[in-house]
Amino acid sequence: METTKRNHDWPVLDFARIQPTMESLHQWLQIVGKIRLRTMPWQNHSWHTALYVSPRGFSTNGIPYGEEVFQIDFDFKKHQLLIQCSHREPIGFALEPMTVARFHQLLFEKLEELGIKVKIHGSPNEMEPAIPFKENTVNKAYDPEAARNLWQAMLKSSNVFQEFRSEFIGKCSPVHLFWGAFDLAVTRFSGKGAPLHQGGMPNMPLDVMQEAYSREVSSAGFWPGSSDFPFPAFYAYAYPSHEDFGKQAVEPKEAFYSEDMGEFFLKYEDVQQSEDPRGMLISFLQTTYEAAANTSKWDRQHLESPSKQ
Question: Which of 137, 285, 288, 306 could be stapled to 236 by a disulfide with Cβ–Cβ 3.0 to 4.6 Å?
Answer without folding.
Answer: 288
